[in-house]
Amino acid sequence: RDLPFHGERKEAGAGEPTGEPGQESRGGFFSTLTVLGQYLGAYLVCQDGEDLLLIDQHAAHERVAFERLRGEYACGSVESQGLLFPDVLELSHSEAATLQEHAGEVARLGFELEEFGGAAVALKSVPRILAHGDYLKALRDIIEELAALGRTRTFTDIQEGILIRIACHSVVRGAGTLTGTEVSALLSALDSVSFASNCPHGRPVFKRIGRGEVEKMFKRA
Predict the structure, then answer these.
(1) Distance between CA 49 and CA 30 in Å, rounded?
(2) Mean pLDDT, residues 64-73
(3) In this structure, what are the phi and psi dihedrals at residue 191, rounded to the nearest 5 degrees?
């Protein structure tokens, strides 16, 4: 369903140079796009000069989340948020041993765990970016990855993959209607990260459709 939230951004005139991600501009490339609406609750339809841009909301959110996580991790640790009521996880003895072996790395990822008796642990804090996401599934995925480490691989080898998992679990899947304010926030967030052309899994964040392509569709070219 298309939403009629037309952006207040200035439309570039014919013949004006159009921007690209990473190019210096007042407000950034994505923030200066003219937002025409939303398609299927999953794509933003924008205009850049004479071109149309389709932005995949899920891929865009994933890219932003991953870059923020990577930045926080590089600075020492991922920002965490305490849970109002800790979650108790029943683990196998091998899973508990894996967590104990990699306690420092897991804590640096933003998870605060406490022994709860036997092989159970109490999850007291989670990465802030995951506070409203599926943090239990993310933690179990991380434990699984850590358990698969062998003599030839270290935590450093899988570090980026784990951050991608956390970013993925932090983003709501499926279609979702965005308000005009949320659209503006997403576009500004894309401008704040160093690389916004693809999501962490390699899928494109946006596709450009030139005026010539549109006119060819309608046999005007």
Answers:
(1) 12
(2) 93
(3) -70, -20
Tokens of 138: 């993310």
Q: What is the pLDDT of residue 194?
A: 80
Tell which wins on pLDDT, 79 or 3.
79
CA dist list (Å): 105 to 109, 156, 185, 206? 6, 10, 31, 34
Cα–Cα–Cα angle for 3, 195, 10, rounded to 5 degrees: 45
φ, ψ (nearest 5 deg) of residue 138? -60, -45
88, 119, 169 from 114: Cα distances, Å: 9, 11, 22
The answer on pLDDT for 15 being more than 60 is no
Ramachandran region of residue 219, left (φ > 0), alpha (ψ -120 to 50) or beta? left
Are 55 and 69 within 8 A, CB to CB? no
Q: Which two tokens stand for residue 126?
A: 């989670």
Q: Which residues, in sequence order, are CB contacts of 153 under 8 Å at separation 6+?
A: none
> Are the C-beta atoms of 129 and 68 separated by less than 8 Å?
yes
Q: Using the CB atoms, write b or e for 28-43: b if 16+ within 10 Å.
A: bbbbbbbbbbbbeebb
If you ran DSSP here, which 8-state letter would residue 2 be given?
A: -
- For 100-109, how does the pLDDT look when each residue is reduced to its tens digit (9 = 90+)? 999 999 999 9
If you ran DSSP here, which 8-state letter would residue 193 be given? Answer: S
Angle at 95 between CA 128 and CA 68, to 5 degrees: 20
Contacts 24+ apart (CB under 8 A), 213-218: 214/52
Contact indicator for 153, 106 with CB cutoff of 8 Å = no
